[in-house]
């Protein structure tokens, strides 16, 4: 909703965005209309208010220009406009969108509300609308008069609110405001004196009274009025409304650099808005639970006129034992005014007295750092007027279930919140000096408030220390860098306190989770690693692990580092290796099962043995996409004893990584497998071919030749037809792209013969498709169609979209070469459907380039642009070169010489790197 503001600078704000409303005179005009929103303001009156006795030569023309520009600004907001009416202008808008009118409305409601607490909330809302000096940046006699009147209204509202605060027991809020200066009125002085008296400081109140009395006598020659005189008599008589001891105010100091938890503060406001409300802030150590609780409690202390009780139960203190509940109860009884001799000796009697004393009071009880539900229950107050705020590293499920408590799980700060917190502690200017280092510190701290506080403290302790130096320390050893040498300011100590609260089985599971290669893992994988699902529930309840979304478990990076450290120090190598093997066995089995769905006609690429199944192809592909990074990290970090697992995973995922165009991931995985596979084995040959094929896709043809030729030599020596067919296809691909047609054709024919010897229909179909593509590149389109139809028949018989899609795309090019445009378009579009439905980025890229080559003008440019974007994303160098080449030619044909030259230069660079004949074609184009 739009906000029209005058209580500060004159502004128009919507959605947090401030709109430019022009220079000072134009803002003057807007201010005049806003103050009289909904009412016609005559032109002469506007001129007088805006220019006073110095109007321009043609004030009406100037006014018309300003109104016209303001209409343009306000046109973006529904229901807000300026209209000409009866010799003047009127701004039409809901008056409550104008802050001064909303201020007046809220004050009117507050003064008519019989409930003092509700009225106080209305005053707070009204006064929060003030952002500084009203109509700031504007000047003139009329502005000065209006500003003075508005300031008077605000001062009256402040005084009215303070009277309510005194009436409702919120006198601490009156004292928190700056003391009135010597020019303040008698009413403000009386309020402060009464607040001092109610706070249990009668001597201070009397001293303040004497200062005010003397000032009135010196300046006005008058005595204090009835209110001050009556108050003076009450102070002398000790006539406080509550004749007992002062209400307890036990809250610790609120954090000075609190930031980033606006949503959580609002959630607490809602959770603690009712009677007898109990809220539990739970979360891992170091997230800032205590900061949040104390900040909310301090901000809302005036809602609890009978006081605030606080105890740190030390449930997870690294240096102290937990505070027993009965000791905390005795402390509360003392705070509530019970003499030590009157406290019952037995814990049950103490708890009963505590509940009796709190039954009729409006108290806030803050129970910080509770260990479990049993730690909290004896400290719950009696009656329905108190509220309780609990913090714990555990979820306290018993408290939520049996005592109706509400939960506020605390998560890590997001990147912006973390940056804001660091800026609060170090200063925005300090971060601005080294923004990249600042961002790295934020990333390394992972949104953990304590980590950020420690990092800031280490910088602040040495003023000359550069942020980049701390960032380097964090890169090298995060847990060491986040340790100040004190138990309360060390992440290891914080994590250790949570870890030591676990039972032995859960502690062992926590250490093993340090073996998980990435930030999160699926339930089945975690269960395979641990041997049981039970520890997962325990660790989640202890907030050392988080289940989000359901079925996936995540451990904070810093917690995971700690778990890994513990595992290395505590568990023997055999235990850790067995767990790693279980985890890898799980992922290898799931990957094989997913590939059974993804590419069902290539079982020869996958390990045998029993494995789970996926309900459908979509679920299998979704699992592969979700777990890709985990699988890659698992392989590259595996111990030497699991080398065979890595080699099998490489072969299993080969087709998926190729089709989905994850070339860099494929190169990393296959290179790792090649290094681990035993030379002279078929596994070594398949890994070498996978490395070479990936290098082809990346456009590194010269590097690809070596491993592919080695694979081919091995295949020939061992008469491995499967490996031979795959390797010869790859050799032929390089030959074809580089224009060595005869050599390519010979290799393709040998690849087809080897494929037929294997008896695998899909492998034969691939070889046939490759030969068809080859003839299409040679310009023999009829021969191409012959081979492609044969390949398509195999695809149809197998129901293989992975083969059928490339066949359709190649047929599209062949039919285009024969001049059969409609047939070509149909095949291209069907191929694109196959590619996009199946997530085949490789096929999509080649089809877009080939389809674009059959078009002209804007249609060609559009298809080439799509291909270029996809080639950039995947890193397919040859596809990138073709797209740039096509765009250069298409733009040149359209007369766009600048665009044409840029694309042709880019194509030349790519072709030169590939060392293909097309580079000469580009040079000819650029030279023409």
Radius of gyration: 38 Å
Helix content: 55-70%
Fourth CATH level, the homologous superfamily of one domain: Winged helix-like DNA-binding domain superfamily/Winged helix DNA-binding domain
In DSSP terms (H or I, runs of 4 or more residues), the helix count works out at 44
* CATH T-level topology of one domain: Arc Repressor Mutant, subunit A
Q: Going across the biggest sheet, name each strand in turn.
A: 8-9-10-7-11
Question: Outline of this structure?
Answer:
This protein has 928 residues and is α/β, with parallel strands linked by helices. Among the domains are: 1-168, Arc Repressor Mutant, subunit A, CATH 1.10.10.10; 262-409, P-loop containing nucleotide triphosphate hydrolases (Rossmann fold), CATH 3.40.50; 415-492; 502-571, Orthogonal Bundle (Arc Repressor Mutant, subunit A), CATH 1.10.10; 760-848, Serine Threonine Protein Phosphatase 5, Tetratricopeptide repeat (Alpha Horseshoe), CATH 1.25.40; 855-928. The protein is built from 44 helices and 14 strands.
Q: What features would you describe in this structure?
A:
The two termini are 60 Å apart. β1 and β2 (11-14) form a beta hairpin. This protein is flat. The protein has 44 helices and 14 strands. α6 (141-167) runs parallel beside α8 and α29 crosses α31 (663-676). It has a five-stranded parallel β-sheet, with helices on both faces. The protein is of the alpha/beta class.
């Amino acid at each position: 909703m739009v906000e029209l503001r005058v209580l500060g600078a004159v502004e128009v704000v919507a959605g947090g965005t401030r709109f430019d409303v022009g220079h000072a005179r134009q803002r003057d005009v807007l201010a005049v209309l806003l103050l009289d929103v909904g009412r016609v303001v005559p032109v002469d009156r506007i001129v007088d208010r805006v220019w006073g006795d110095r109007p321009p030569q043609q004030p009406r023309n100037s006014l018309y220009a300003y109104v016209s520009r303001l209409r343009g600004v306000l046109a973006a907001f529904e229901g807000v406009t300026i209209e000409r009416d009866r010799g003047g202008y009127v701004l039409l808008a809901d008056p409550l969108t104008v802050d001064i009118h909303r201020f007046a409305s809220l004050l009117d409601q507050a003064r008519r509300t019989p409930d003092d607490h509700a009225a106080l909330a209305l005053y707070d809302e009204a006064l929060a609308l003030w952002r500084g000096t009203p109509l700031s940046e504007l000047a003139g006699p009329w502005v000065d008069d209006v500003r003075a009147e508005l300031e008077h209204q605000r001062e009256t509202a402040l005084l009215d609110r303070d009277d309510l605060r005194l009436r409702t027991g919120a006198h601490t809020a009156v004292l928190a405001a700056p003391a009135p200066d010597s020019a303040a009125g008698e009413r403000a002085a009386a309020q402060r004196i009464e607040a001092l008296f109610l706070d249990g400081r009668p001597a201070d109140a009397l001293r303040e009274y004497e200062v005010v009395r003397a000032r009135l006598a010196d300046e006005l020659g008058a005595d204090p009025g009835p209110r001050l005189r009556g108050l003076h008599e009450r102070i002398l008589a000790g006539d406080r409304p509550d004749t007992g001891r002062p209400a307890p105010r036990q809250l610790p100091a609120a954090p000075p650099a609190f930031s980033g938890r606006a949503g959580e503060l609002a959630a607490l406001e809602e959770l603690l808005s009712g009677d007898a409300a109990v809220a539990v802030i739970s979360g891992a150590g170091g997230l800032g639970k205590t900061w949040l609780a104390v900040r909310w409690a301090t901000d809302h202390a005036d809602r609890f006129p009978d006081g605030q009780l606080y105890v740190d139960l030390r449930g997870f203190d690294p240096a102290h034992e937990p505070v027993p509940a009965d000791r905390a109860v005795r402390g509360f009884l003392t705070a509530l005014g019970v003499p030590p001799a009157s406290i019952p000796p037995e814990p049950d009697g103490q708890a009963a007295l505590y509940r009796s004393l709190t039954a009729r009071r409006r108290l806030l009880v803050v129970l910080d750092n509770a260990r479990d539900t049993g730690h909290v229950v004896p400290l719950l107050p009696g009656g329905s007027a108190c509220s309780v705020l609990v913090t714990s590293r555990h979820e306290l499920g018993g408290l939520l279930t049996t005592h109706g408590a509400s939960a506020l799980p605390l998560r890590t700060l997001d990147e912006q919140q973390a940056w804001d917190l660091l800026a609060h502690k170090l200063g925005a200017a300090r971060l601005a000096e080294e923004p990249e280092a600042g961002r790295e510190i934020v990333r390394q701290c992972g949104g953990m408030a304590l980590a950020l506080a420690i990092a800031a403290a280490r910088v602040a302790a040495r003023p000359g220390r550069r942020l980049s130096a701390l960032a380097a320390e964090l890169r090298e050893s995060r847990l060491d860098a986040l340790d100040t040498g004190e138990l309360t300011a060390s992440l290891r100590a914080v994590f250790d306190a949570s870890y030591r609260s676990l039972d032995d089985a859960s502690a062992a599971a926590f250490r093993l989770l340090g073996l998980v290669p990435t930030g999160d893992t699926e339930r089945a994988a975690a269960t395979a690693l641990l041997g049981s699902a039970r520890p997962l529930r325990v660790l989640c309840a202890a907030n050392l692990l988080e289940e989000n979304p359901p079925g996936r478990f995540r451990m904070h990076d810093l917690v995971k580092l700690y778990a890994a450290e513990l595992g290395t120090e505590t568990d023997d190598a055999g235990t850790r290796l067995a767990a790693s093997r279980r985890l890898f066995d799980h992922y290898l089995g799931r990957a094989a099962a997913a590939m059974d769905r993804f590419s069902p006609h290539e079982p020869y690429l996958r390990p045998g043995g029993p494995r789970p199944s996926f309900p459908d192809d979509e679920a299998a592909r979704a699992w592969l996409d979700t777990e890709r990074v985990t699988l890659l990290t698992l392989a590259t970090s595996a111990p030497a004893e699991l080398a065979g697992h890595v080699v099998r995973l490489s072969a299993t995922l080969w087709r998926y990584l190729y089709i989905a165009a994850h070339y860099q991931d494929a190169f990393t995985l296959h290179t790792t497998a090649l290094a681990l596979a035993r030379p002279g084995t078929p596994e070594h040959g398949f890994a070498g071919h996978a490395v070479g094929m990936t290098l082809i896709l990346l456009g590194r043809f010269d590097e690809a030749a070596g491993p592919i030729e080695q694979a081919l030599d091995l295949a020939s020596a061992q008469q491995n037809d499967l490996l031979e067919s795959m390797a010869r296809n790859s050799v032929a691909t390089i030959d074809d792209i580089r224009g060595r047609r005869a050599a390519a054709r010979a290799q393709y024919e040998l690849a087809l013969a080897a494929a037929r010897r294997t008896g695998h229909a899909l492998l034969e179909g691939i070889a046939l498709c490759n030969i068809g593509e080859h003839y299409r590149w040679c310009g023999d389109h009829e021969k191409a169609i012959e081979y492609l139809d044969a390949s398509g028949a195999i695809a149809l018989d197998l129901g293989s979209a992975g083969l059928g899609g490339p066949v359709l795309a190649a047929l599209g090019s062949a039919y285009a070469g024969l001049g059969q445009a409609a047939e070509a378009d149909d095949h291209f579009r069907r191929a694109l459907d196959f590619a996009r439905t199946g997530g085949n980025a490789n096929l999509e890229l080649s089809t877009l380039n080939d389809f674009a080559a059959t078009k002209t003008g804007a249609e060609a440019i559009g298809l080439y642009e799509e291909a270029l974007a996809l080639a950039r994303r995947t890193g397919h160098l040859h596809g990138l070169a073709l797209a740039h080449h096509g765009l250069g030619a298409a733009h040149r044909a359209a007369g766009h010489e600048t665009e044409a030259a840029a694309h042709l230069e880019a194509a030349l660079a790519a072709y030169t790197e590939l060392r293909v004949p097309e580079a000469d074609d580009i040079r000819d184009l650029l030279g023409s």
